Amino acid sequence: MNTKKAAFTVLSIALKIVIFAVLVLVVVRVGSFAYEYGHAVFEEEALDEPPGRTIPVTVPEGASAKDIAMLLEDEGLVEDWKLFYFQILCSKYANTMQPGEYVLSTAMKPRELMAVMSGEEVEFSWDQQEES
To answer: What pTM does this model have?
Structure first.
């Protein structure tokens, strides 16, 4: 009887250790993903190094921030529309982007893309190649 009780105790402790290890692994993975995503949101990077390529973009009337983010991904100006959409929501440009025709660059950071589409002047000091 003592042998069964000892075996049960050992198995119980082993199971608790395995569950704890799995929980630690899950927390580390989720934390790592959250850190990387947060870093991508707040540490802006352009898609290309200067000079980049210029791409004409038309933002239609009534386009939402999500529509604009998806459009810029389709045009090759941002890598991930979901990330760019989250950047829009976290910025001061969330409700200021306007419809119209823009010439944007793959060397622009996300905040610069938003600024241009919000009507702000953004100056560049490099020669850009227009995509045809």
So the answer is: 0.70
Determine contact, residues 75/124, Cβ cutoff 8 Å: no
Give the closest residue to 40 by CA, choosing from 76, 77, 75, 90: 90
Percentage, residues of the chain above pLDDT 90: 64
Instruction: Name residue 56's beta-bridge partners.
Output: 103
**Phi, psi at residue 68, to the nearest 5°?**
-65, -45
User: Do 43 and 111 contact (CB within 8 A), yes or no?
Assistant: no
Taking alpha carbons only, the member of 100, 105, 103, 106 closest to residue 118 is: 100
What was the pLDDT predicted at 127?
Answer: 54
Residues 44-72 pLDDT 10s: 788 888 888 999 999 999 999 999 999 99
Which helix (H) or strand (E) segment holds residue 53: the answer is strand 53-59
Tokens 């049960």 belong to 8
**What are the φ/ψ torsions at residue 91 (nearest 5 degrees)?**
-105, 175
